[in-house]
């Protein structure tokens, strides 16, 4: 239901002790990545590669991250990054920002080109868009961005979101799995 998104080291420590099986790493420095992944070794970690400071957007950066750190998956807004990660055998999430009907049409095309495993739709509170992207692509949709309340989580799921990413720790606690 919830896919915790980690923004700072306090979140890493908290999540390492939780029952969540998966998480997303956002906004970190390449020099901290190894330590973070060591602390989260019991989790399936998606790395948002576009937000890792100290990396370029080149294929070599994707290869380096996957070969060195062996994440469960990669998140990116870039089709070529998603394709490279898929080629290297990890799960992929293409992240799309849908702000108007033109962006929706572009995003559908990007999703189809990328052949990602999952699609993260931002903003996650765009309930009409979640359903439309799911219907048009047949992909599992992750709602992300601007989700701050239990009602927004419930709405995203009601509209067809497979999971909801959030960095709000109070929502992690509310929806933490029991096992």
UniProtKB/TrEMBL annotation:
One example of a Gene Ontology biological process annotation: positive regulation of DNA-templated transcription
Pfam families: G3P_antiterm (PF04309)
Keyword terms: Glycerol metabolism, RNA-binding, Transcription, Transcription regulation
InterPro entries: Aldolase_TIM, GlpP
Keyword Nucleotidyltransferase recorded: no
Highest rank taxon of the organism: Bacteria
Gene3D superfamilies xrefs: Aldolase class I
Gene Ontology MF terms: RNA binding; transcription antitermination factor activity, RNA binding
Name of the protein in question: Glycerol uptake operon antiterminator regulatory protein
Organism annotation: Macrococcus carouselicus
Cited function: Regulates expression of the glpD operon. In the presence of glycerol 3-phosphate (G3P) causes antitermination of transcription of glpD at the inverted repeat of the leader region to enhance its transcription. Binds and stabilizes glpD leader mRNA.
């Amino acid at each position: 239901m919830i896919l915790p998104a980690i923004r700072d080291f306090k979140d890493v420590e908290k999540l390492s002790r939780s029952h969540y099986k998966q998480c997303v790493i956002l906004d970190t420095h390449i020099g901290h990545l190894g330590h973070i992944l060591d602390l989260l070794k019991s989790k399936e970690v998606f790395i948002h590669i576009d937000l890792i400071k100290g990396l370029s957007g080149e294929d070599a950066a994707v290869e380096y991250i996957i070969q060195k750190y062996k994440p469960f998956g990669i998140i990116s807004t870039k089709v070529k990054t998603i394709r490279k990660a898929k080629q290297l055998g990890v799960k992929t999430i293409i992240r799309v920002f849908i702000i108007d009907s033109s962006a929706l049409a572009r995003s559908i095309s990007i999703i189809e080109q990328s052949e990602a495993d999952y699609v993260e739709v931002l903003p996650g509170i765009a309930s009409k868009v979640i359903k439309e992207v799911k219907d048009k692509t047949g992909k599992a949709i992750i709602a992300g961005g601007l989700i701050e309340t239990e009602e927004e989580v419930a709405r995203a799921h009601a509209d067809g979101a497979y999971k909801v990413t959030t960095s709000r720790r109070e929502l992690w606690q509310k929806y933490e799995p029991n096992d």
